Amino acid sequence: MSRILWLGCSFTNGLELPDKKVQRFSAKVCKHFGQLEWNEAKVGAGNDYIQRYVFNSVLQNKMHYSVQSGTAETIRVHEYNSKKQADGRGKYMQVHTKHRESCGEGAPKLVVCMWSGINRQEILRKSVISNDWSWCINSWGKFSLDPKTLMATEDSVPYVDPMINYRHTEYMRGYMKYIRNAHYNLRITIGQMLAVKYFLQAKGINQLHYLFSHGQYRPLLPMLDWEVSENTNNWWRSLDPNREQIVEELPFLESEGFYDLCTRKRLKIGPKDHPLEDGHEHMARRIIEDIKNNEFHKEFN
Q: 275 and 258 in contact (C-beta within 8 Å)?
């Protein structure tokens, strides 16, 4: 059975590993405890995806496991007008992948979240080409933070889903660069973390939380002590919790991230800036120890 559910981004997915279904930390932990691996991490995903998929996976009341060698099939090919092609035409392919199998009804006994960066966001959009609905990622090809404005720097490059209407692409890029800011993104992320924590607690499901990197968290935590107001026509003091209150609720916000663990130990990092097998081995040991210390493994049998 798959009694451990894993959520995260490319760090949890195992991007850049030669054989991620064997080498990533989730696979190593599951093998240690004799469990089938249920990994729902999505490359490029943000924290909104993690919250959404924790809810979805538990509420479906059906456990799954990762298929060792998933199959991919091109279901549809659509032609569309493209500004990037010399002839003005492009192709949009829908490649569907089978990556999980059901292994019984019920909820996981443990959910492990490795929280991603705070600046990513997803949208549910209808393709202007195929009219299909899908959850898509709007992330960054390049991101730097201006410490004075807490906005993305001018040379930052947002990635916008190419199936968004061209007329709207610049709007989305502007929203990501000039409307969203680090303080806002951190507060939204904390809300997502709290929602997951109390949802799993209400369902009686054990949980562990980690950071993909603490670089987007530790330097920003002092902002949580800034005064924040509610604002319509009148202004009044907001009830947003301060740093002490939030860290008491979410102590992992001050923990060492996966990436930072690897750099501290001088472990190899891939060309796309992801930990490789030695890093996943160290992270697996850390999680195994946490599972044992909390005695979560006693519920796996």
A: yes
Cα 148 to chain centroid distance, Å, stands at: 27
Instruction: Give 79's strand partners.
Output: 91
Chain length of the chain: 301
Per-residue tokens: 243 = 């740093």
Place of tokens 């907001």: 238
pLDDT single digits (tens) 252-290? 999 999 999 999 999 999 999 999 999 999 999 999 999
CB 65 within 8 A of CB 27: no
Burial class (CB in 10 A: 0-12, 13-18, 19+), 200: buried
Tokens linked to 69: 């060698």
Asked if 176 contacts 152 with a C-beta cutoff of 8 angstroms, the reply is: yes
The predicted pLDDT at position 297 comes to 96
Does this model's pTM top 0.70? My answer is yes
| Beta pairing partners, 230 | 236
Hey, what amino acid is at 121? Q
Query: For the chain, which domains are there?
Result: 4-70+98-118+182-299 (3.40.50.1110), 120-179 (no CATH)
Place of tokens 């405890």: 33
Phi, psi angles (nearest 5°) of residue 76: -140, 150
What's the pLDDT score for residue 126? 83
